Each structure stands twice: as C-alpha cells, then as structure tokens.
C-alpha cells in the first residue's frame, strides 16, 4: 500500500502549486493526501492568568478560521476530484511540526511550496522548505 503524502498549505500561490503536484502524485499512486497547515506559536511568553485564558480562546478561533478558510476548501476540492484527502492543523515551528505530522501519518513524502522569501532574513534564518529538507526523515519535494 502507498504511504500518505503530507502537503503543506498556507494559502499562497506556492502552496497551491504544492497541492497541485501532490494531487497528481496521489492520483497516480493512490496515496492519501494530508493537507497540513501550521500556525506558528511561541511558547516563550510570560502571561497572566487572564492573558493566558484569552490566548487559548484566540488559539481556538485561529484554528477554526484556518480550517474554514484554508484547509477545508482544499480537502473538499481534492475529495471532489476523487482523491482521498484529510486536513490537519497544528501549532508549532513549521518545519518541525510538518515532520511530526508526517511521522504521525507514517507518510512517505512531504510536498511544500518554496515561498522564495529571499532577502536578508532567509539568508540569516533559512527558509522553512530548506530546513524541512534538512530535518525530514522522508523525501521532501520543494515546488517552486
């Protein structure tokens, strides 16, 4: 049986191209697609109880918005095309969280769009796609 393909989707044009390629791969192999969206979350804030409560409330709202606006429409489109697709939204460091999602689904591949942020920040900190290619335990396809 073919292992699932995790495809990172952030709503960008590069993300759409990644979904398109992953859909083609899944269509030809029969693999399940896991459409993954990662919301960055910093655990390094010191908050009062009230602020913590509000933050958790906002977190639930962000997950709901990401599900409705980003992931659900893509999963519905893929399903309508006859593909087996699910969605997953998590908080965390994007590259590390995509690896966790791939491991949780026993995925055989991760597909991600290259956003091409460029500039000084990409040279100093690296891109998500570049980091993912270095740390992933499965092949990573970076779509331009």
Please give the CATH architecture: 3-Layer(aba) Sandwich
**Average pLDDT rating:** 86
Spatial shape: globular
Radius of gyration: 16 Å
E-strand count: 5
What is the CATH topology classification name?
Answer: Rossmann fold
Secondary structure layout:
Layout lengths: L4 E4 L4 H17 L3 E7 L9 H32 L4 E7 L2 H11 L4 E5 L5 H7 L2 H8 L4 E4 L1
Parallel strand pairs: 1-2, 1-4, 2-3, 4-5
Helix pairs in contact: 3-5
Index terms:
144 residues; alpha/beta; Rossmann fold; five-stranded parallel beta sheet; 5 helices; 5 strands; 19% strand; globular
Describe this entry's structure for a reader.
The chain is an alpha/beta fold. It has a single domain, classed as Rossmann fold, CATH 3.40.50. Helices cover 52% and strands 19% of the residues. The protein is built from five helices and five strands, in the order E-H-E-H-E-H-E-H-H-E. Helix 2 links the parallel strand 2 and strand 3. Helix 3 crosses helix 5.
Summarize the structure.
The protein is of the alpha/beta class and 144 residues long. It has helices at residues 13-29, 49-80, 94-104, 119-125, 128-135; strands at residues 5-8, 33-39, 85-91, 109-113, 140-143.
